[in-house]
Specification:
The complex is a heterotrimer of chains A (360), B (509) and C (439). Chain A is an alpha+beta fold. Chain A folds into two domains: 3-206, CV3147-like domain (CV3147-like fold), CATH 3.40.1610.10; 228-347, CV3147-like (Beta Barrel), CATH 2.40.390. Helix content of chain A is 31%, strand content 25%. Chain A contains ten helices and 17 strands. In chain A, a hairpin with a 6-residue loop joins strand 12 (264-268) and strand 13. In chain A, helix 1 (7-19) packs antiparallel against helix 4 and helix 1 packs across helix 8. Chain A is globular and about 60 Å long. The termini of chain A are far apart. By secondary structure, chain B is an alpha/beta fold. Chain B has 21 helices and 16 strands. Chain B starts with 9 loop residues before the first strand and ends in a 10-residue tail after the last helix. Chain C is 30% helix and 29% strand. In chain C, the strands form six sheets. Chain C has a six-stranded mixed beta sheet with strand order 3-2-1-4-9-10, sandwiched between helices. In chain C, strands 11, 12, 13, 18 and 19 form a five-stranded mixed beta sheet that branches. In chain C, helix 1 packs across helix 5 and helix 7 crosses helix 8. Classes of the chains: A alpha+beta (360), B alpha/beta (509), C alpha/beta (439). The interface between A and B is medium-sized, with 24 and 20 residues.
Chain lengths: 360, 509, 439
Amino acid sequence: MSTVLTTEDIRNLRTGAHFLTCTIDPTAIYIYAEMIQRAMEDRSLELITVDELAPDDLVVAVGMVTQGLFIADMPPVGDEFLGCIRAIEASLGRSVRAIYSLAAANINGIVPLMVGLQSSLPVIDSDPMGRVFPLISQTTLNIGNVPIGPIALMGVTGERAVVEVESPQRAETLVRALVTELGGWAATAMYPCSAQQLKEHGVHGSISRMIRIGQILNANTPVEKKLLMLAEFLGTTRIARARVSHIESLSRPTDLGLPAQPSSVTLDDETTGRIIRLEIQNEILLVLVDGAVTAAVPDMVTLLNSEQGTVVNIDDVQVGDVIDIVKITAAAQWYTEAGLDLTEPKAFGIPIGHPRRRHA
Amino acid sequence: MRRPKNENRLDVAGLLAHGSLRGTTPLYLTPSSALIESVVLVSQLEAIRQVRPNTVVVLSAEMGSGGWLVSAALRHAWERRASAVVVAGSTYASAAVGLAQRLGITLLAADGDPAALALALAAEIGAALSVVDAELARVARTVAKDTTLGDVLKTISGELDGFGVSLEYDGVVLASTGMPPRETDEVITVEVGGANSAVRFTLTARVPVSGVHNLRLVRSILEVATPAVKAAWLLEDLLSTARAVPTAAIAGLDQDPAGSGAEFEEKHRHLLNQLGWREGELYVAVWFRGGRVQDHRPELTAVLRLLWRKVTLRSPLAEVEGGWLTLVPAGDQDTSTQLENRIRTRLGPALAELGLVAGLSRWQEDTPALASIVREARLAAESVRSTGPGTVLGFASLGVAAATGFVNMDAVALVAELSLPRLMTSPDRDVIMTAVAAFLDHRGSVSLAANFLNLHRNTLQARLNRARELGVPLDNPSELLSVHLIAHVLRRSMPDQANAPASTSDSSP
Amino acid sequence: MRVGLRLQGTSCRAVVLDGRNVVSAPREVLAGSLPEALDLSLSGLRREFGSGITEITADVGRVLAERKLSDVVAIRISPRPPADAFHMTVLPPLVEPAVTRTVHVRGGHDLRGRPLARLDLEAFLADLPGILAGDVRNVAITSVGSTASTDHETRIADAILSHDRDLRISISSDFYSSVFRDRDYTAILNSALMETGEELAAMLEEAGRRQFPAAHLSFAKNDGGRAPLARLTVAPVHGLRAEPAMGILGAATLAGIPEGEVILCLEAGATVGHTRGGLPVARSLIRQGFDASLASNAAILEPYTVHHPVRTEIPSVIADLRESQESALPFGLVPTLPAVQDAALVGCAAAPLTAWIDRLETVSGRVDLKRVQNLAEEDAHSAAVQLGASPGQTRILESNVYAMPYGNPGIVRIRVQAAGETSADDEGLLHAGARGTTP
């Protein structure tokens, strides 16, 4: 059903988008949420389900692709996504009927709403990741063989490119290279497809889910109640409530042998004595409890402040903090053989299969 | 440190105090020392799931020492009731110590290479094979991924810390990588079986004596890598054979020695085009052949191909009737000269070792027919057969004397026996024939010939007269050519000193 | 002996420290005006202690916060101007009214320090007379990518100064944040505070010269250090919210713990900070909810919670700073310091000179990384020396390298803090124990 979003929804979406990617500096989410709320003062924003479109309507994913730069350091001018959508329309000779988000968390979970306000296009409550992944090839549309191209990119300089490409892996390489030269990020429109294709191969309810998560977390209820409601709504499990005992900044060598952001955090569960270890590469990829794999990408893992139930940024974690470690199951497509091939720990350079892989 | 009651049984505390675990730093020790019955060196986490109880699990250096990995290894080891876990380095393992303590399993940090430690430990408990097997299985997996011989050798060398590794045939180095050999190196050789059982190929590693390397492990690594060496080599040889088909065809088509090169080309134009030869391209042909015709070994083709790669990678080498042929693009005279020099310097010693010679065609500006240059190369090669293995000769350097190379020496000698019996039995035969040959070489000039032989003119004149007395027909022009030929043939069979200065027309060194 | 001052409204509060001992309990002078209160306060101290006073450090944070901000022209350098009103950089509500005009200049760099657009200096110069017409005295300049290259910001600043060399200019690359709006906000706020900073510096300078001509005068910073008054005129923003840092330093100084945990109990609740190398542990941003953060290295002081770990291996001080200490402290805390009235004022008196280097570098490997880190340490060291620290008394407290998340492994952020003391000052302050070999 079509829904007209309110500024309250955006505030909740802000929290939900952050919850599903706890590790990243949320400044860009904040900036966009604020921008969207101001824009909503004189325009309305429509969220639709993919079923409301005609099967062959052209829809396109919009999202930021970044390479080593926070969008916050180089704020978009504002015309980038509209330029990308126009480029896709020119390339395909058809009008885009609706947009959807490239990812269901973080900045790309919220950006499409601003684009919807600017373009007056409806925003579909679907996405091709059901969470956020670092690579544009890590999508359920890719599993469903929906072509990624043509891809339109526009950077802060106003320079544009349309990449005619079929293989999502090649697209990843080409787009990364372009993004670096465009200044560090690019607004993109990709995976142009029919509403029918998105319906068959996408993940649905992406935005409404983030709003609901925000409603739960922002409510004035005790943390335990919030965790219960999340468990009921998302099937989340709390792996542990534990105290941070150690933070490592490097446990795998990187290309240059340089230090990384915090790359692993060890915590002690003081009630049971269990030792929990988080492996992090920009986001949490692996959770070991007493050395046993308890969660692994594509599972989502997020950290909550045990007192306030607020999302904790990895950068802010300090030794001594008591944190709730919450696991969220990803979209079902990710647990198929093809899905695990794209996203299990091995795809991130950690030589470990996902526990749900049958022949692990 | 307490030793277990049963002296035959090893335990962690004992080996830490006196044994092979001395080279480790304990990160966590369980209060009671665990029994040790075996050791495994693992390079994959999953492998820990199969270990027997009371095993020391050593994580190989290639696994890294990431904390998560140590955690997961501890967990698996704990589930299998292992005696201890040994990790490489301890920089990042500190956070894992708590888990070791929680699970009650000893965690040790190896100061050096964990593989070496595992071997020492294995030797101590008499279970070396299992460790070697694990390490070797990993090496085998690694080399199996390589598809070219060069890559395989590189990988082996990499596994051996960059030591020199080479493939050799009868002492000839066919391909090598890694550190250059030194006098003092320990040489470890493993035979690589050829297609037939005449095993002459070896895979050789040169290990510095100062090194701490376990020579037995080096040998084992060479052994497990051997199939990959063979496979890569066979594959390359197969590809080379396929690539050499157009070259082989040229030699095969040219069965009509009387026909000119141009006719040949006219006749087979279509086929030549199909084979990929283009008109107007300049080539130099190179023909290799054995010193003795019957001396043909089937594996030589593969050997020669590997050697040929030291000269050029682009031109395929074809096995043809009577030798091996390759056509090398050469746009100018310099390239052609360089090619000849390169073959001489890079292959000369190996060719000598293998009993082979090489001949090259002339470089010609006016695009000679392919068939002509092939013939030139073949003739050059055949003419130097007698000069001895290892000789490399260009057709341009051939002189008339080369004709003697094509003459059946035994037959000439026989003719001489029959037609010049007195000469042949005369005790001063060699001196006489030398004088005759020099006289004819210098177009009948006694002065020049005497000069050349460092003799007085009268002495030479006396010897020529002696020749006439013995029946050598020096005064009959129609017979002079034959005499000249006989003189050269006989002179070849003479001891060196009789020859005095070498004949200027002889280009061989 | 060292004096700690706190200025607020028309009052001045002072404490005198001899080594780590408070020799004169905090006393407050209230007068008709702030200069008057300061003068009265200092003349009282002169009568009592004479020339024994060598260092005077004033916490001016409250004055900076209570004065009206000056008007500022904000200059933003980026490849293109915002296409619509929504994409304009939004400032926190308190600062927003101070910006009378925003000017866009084409330019900016990427994270590798490569220009994204040529700096459009010609157009800017053409507009400059119009921009500076009227009453403009304060300018803030922020460029995209100025953490990697300060070139465009400094060229615009030079252009403005060559037009009018008395303008107060604040450039964003003086403050480190990877977020444009943080730097923009910080540069604007700094610029808006510069007039007050000048005024305070002049006032302190004058009073100091009159009463203690031989003493060094400084202002207290929010990282727990101090800087000469001259810095107050150019970077007043670091004088904001110095009190929490001074509170941590003061309590740690009284307890003698250069490395440890400091729990400050106030009316509003208990808070926790830490010291390392004799200074409060600091973070490079002051966060303000969903708004832009202030890019100033500030001591971390966080609420004490029920989950607070009790760690016996770390020295700890619990200071009860409440006005009324009749009720028990929360969480069963028991003070470990005898009644302290004003730890923050003690902190002011004890604060060392501090300097930060915080910048991006592009490196090609470990060796290169070591080189740029050494260079940053040298720069921090010489920055502290330039503030007046004696080279032999200057040390590096923190030297960290951070990778930038999501790619660009060759780009690192290097953050170094140096602290030192003037040679005149050798009274054995908090860090003296930690310094070991230097008496």
